[in-house]
Structures are given as C-alpha cells and as structure tokens.
Write a structure and sequence with these properties.
With 71 residues, this protein is of the alpha+beta class. It has a domain of 49 residues. The protein contains 4 helices and 3 strands; from the N terminus they run αβααββα. A 3-stranded antiparallel β-sheet has the order 1-3-2. Strand 2 and strand 3 form a beta hairpin. Helix 2 crosses helix 3. The relative contact order is 0.19. Pfam families: HTH_17. This is Helix-turn-helix domain-containing protein. InterPro entries: DNA-bd_dom_put_sf, HTH_17. It comes from Neolewinella aurantiaca.
Length: 71
C-alpha cells in the first residue's frame, strides 16, 4: 500500500496555471552570475522583474531558464 502512495501524483492545487516565482538570488544562481548582473539584465530588457509589495522582487522561473539557454 505504501508503494501506491509514492507513485500517486499530488492533488492539483488549482494554481497550476500560475508561474513559479523565484528570488533574485535564485535567478542569479540559475544563470551563474551575480545579483548585480541580474539587475543589469533587467535594465537591458533581457529579464522582467515582478514587484511583490513595496520591497520584494521575483522572477518567473521559466523566463530565467529561457535566458539561461540563450546566454
């Protein structure tokens, strides 16, 4: 019985259509660059940032992955 539970996918949360958001530090790690370079990519229009509240910035994981393939 335990084996069946391990192979069963988790239930849908209802938010499957929402993009996964990551921090600037996570984006920098994925791109193998500094956080300052991530800021430069945003300034150059290579990457879009999403402002969450007044101080937090996030990036869509898919967009970061796409940029990583291009670089």
């Amino acid at each position: 019985m335990r084996k069946a539970a391990e192979t069963t996918p988790p239930p849908a949360s209802g938010n499957d259509h929402l993009p996964e958001l990551i921090t600037k530090k996570q984006a920098a790690k994925m791109l193998q660059v500094s956080t300052g370079t991530v800021d430069n990519y945003v300034a150059d229009g290579l990457l879009n940032k999403l402002k969450i509240g007044t101080r937090n910035v996030r990036f869509e994981r898919g967009e970061v992955e796409k940029l990583a393939r291009r670089l």
